[in-house]
């Protein structure tokens, strides 16, 4: 009995392992059982059949040695179709002939019937619900073993009344394992369908958020431009006033162009434009630009630590844009003024840029949603700036970590691979 249980557990493992390997090796969102990976799954199921036959489980005596080769054969025929079924039959038949024994002919005949008959049930199998699929594979499994029992009686004179209990146990075991394996496959396919549906929904939601964000931001400069054009059409302004209006129109057009550039940064990655640059030089350049803006808001900016040797692969202009976005958000978070601290640190493996403000801070939910399109903690914000920042950092093989507490401020930590130390190695 112990040997029987060990053999059965081994056979169950041989059946489950192709499905596990399939899950590990295929990409989420691209799993379509036996359709998009027919060759690899046929090979895996063939290995499963061979292992089941090489390591069978034994019942009562040497005269009755059984295995679960029919489980992958039945499921392969139902999910893979006639071609897969034919390949699995050849594998099973050749292996059974090599093993030999008195029951070889019955076994090969049984495998032939499964390989030839089960694929005809495939169209119906694909249309019915999961419960009916489980019932159908259970019945097919029972019928296949029933054929073996009756064939043994007619060809070898095995007394059915002496072995009926053994066959009933085998039928129930194989039927249950076949049904559970089919249920597992159906569960995988259902999860894959739900994942693809969710992915499609998220893409559509992202597009709608983009459309809302861009249209919202473009509407303001366009309305201003429209207003100035209408004024100049209806009234005869002096040349100086017209020049003033022209400058305002150009300013609004530049604002619209900047928004479109931000959108393109996110939509069109900058791979292939990265070069080795000093992090401290680029950060100091940004600070010079942002000092007037910070002073106007009553914010003091301080460098607390600066590693001048730190270098990373970057697109200089995009890196500056990402730092500007974070610093600007930090300044705007301190409506009553405060201090914004910047530090550049490095280890042998990474370079980190720390930007810490004393602003209003964020909740954990707000931190989690940073970088999503059209999410912003600011009343009039669209979230496009932080979304672009996350995209830029990701394109440079970096990561953004945010530590924030409501009412106490926020720290942004940007981490990148350390180019200087990796070159030395």
Summary of the model, kept short:
With 425 residues, the chain is α+β, with helices and mostly antiparallel strands.
Q: Can you tell me about this structure?
A:
The chain is α+β, with helices and mostly antiparallel strands and 425 residues long. It folds into three domains: 2-200, Arp2/3 complex 21 kDa subunit ARPC3 (Orthogonal Bundle); 202-267, Signal transduction histidine kinase, dimerisation/phosphotransfer (DHp) domain (Helix Hairpins, Orthogonal Bundle), CATH 1.10.287.130; 275-424, Heat Shock Protein 90 (2-Layer Sandwich), CATH 3.30.565.10. 66% of the residues lie in helices and 12% in strands. It contains 14 helices and nine strands. The strands form three sheets. The chain has a five-stranded mixed sheet, covered by helices on one side. A two-stranded antiparallel ribbon has the order 1-2. Strand 8 (399-405) and strand 9 (409-417) form a beta hairpin. Helix 2 (38-54) packs antiparallel against helix 3 (70-80) and helix 3 (70-80) packs across helix 7. The longest helix is centred in the middle third of the chain and has 75 residues, at 160-234. The chain starts with a helix and ends with a helix.
């Amino acid at each position: 009995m112990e040997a029987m249980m060990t053999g059965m557990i081994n056979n169950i493992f041989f059946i489950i392992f192709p499905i596990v390997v399939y899950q590990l090796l295929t990409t989420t969102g691209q799993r379509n059982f036996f359709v998009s990976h027919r060759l690899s799954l046929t090979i895996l199921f063939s290995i499963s059949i061979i292992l089941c036959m090489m390591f069978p489980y034994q019942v009562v005596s040497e005269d009755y040695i059984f295995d679960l080769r029919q489980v992958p054969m039945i499921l392969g025929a139902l999910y893979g179709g006639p071609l897969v079924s034919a390949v699995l039959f050849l594998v099973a038949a050749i292996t059974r002939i090599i093993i030999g024994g008195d029951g070889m002919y019955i076994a090969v005949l049984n495998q032939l019937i499964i390989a030839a008959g089960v694929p005809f049930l495939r169209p119906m199998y694909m249309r019915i619900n999961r419960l009916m699929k489980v019932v159908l594979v259970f019945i097919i499994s029972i019928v296949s073993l029933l054929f073996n029992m009756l064939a043994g009686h007619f060809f070898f004179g095995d007394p059915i009344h002496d072995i009926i209990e053994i066959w009933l146990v085998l039928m129930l075991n194989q039927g249950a394992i076949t049904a559970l394996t089919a249920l597992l496959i159906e569960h995988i396919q259902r999860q894959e369908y739900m994942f693809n549906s969710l992915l499609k929904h998220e893409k559509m939601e992202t597009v709608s958020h983009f459309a809302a964000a861009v249209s919202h931001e473009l509407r303001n400069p366009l309305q201003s431009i429209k207003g100035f054009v209408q004024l100049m059409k209806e009234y005869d302004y002096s040349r100086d006033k017209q020049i003033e209006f022209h400058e305002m129109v150009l300013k609004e057009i530049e604002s619209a162009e900047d928004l479109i550039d931000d959108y393109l940064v996110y939509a069109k990655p900058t791979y292939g434009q990265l070069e080795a640059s000093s992090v401290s030089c680029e950060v100091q350049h940004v600070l010079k630009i942002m000092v007037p803006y910070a002073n106007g808001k009553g914010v003091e900016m301080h460098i607390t630590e600066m590693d001048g040797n730190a270098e990373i692969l970057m697109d200089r202009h995009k890196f500056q844009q990402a730092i500007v976005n974070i610093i600007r958000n930090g300044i705007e978070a301190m409506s009553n003024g405060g201090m914004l601290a910047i530090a550049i640190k490095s280890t042998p493996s990474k370079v980190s840029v720390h930007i810490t403000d004393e602003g209003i801070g964020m909740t954990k939910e707000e931190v989690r949603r940073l970088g999503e399109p059209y999410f912003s903690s600011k009343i009039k914000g669209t979230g496009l700036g932080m979304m672009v920042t996350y995209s830029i950092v990701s394109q440079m093989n970096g990561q953004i970590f945010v530590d924030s507490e409501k009412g106490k401020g926020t720290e942004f930590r940007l981490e990148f691979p350390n180019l200087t130390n990796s070159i030395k190695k």
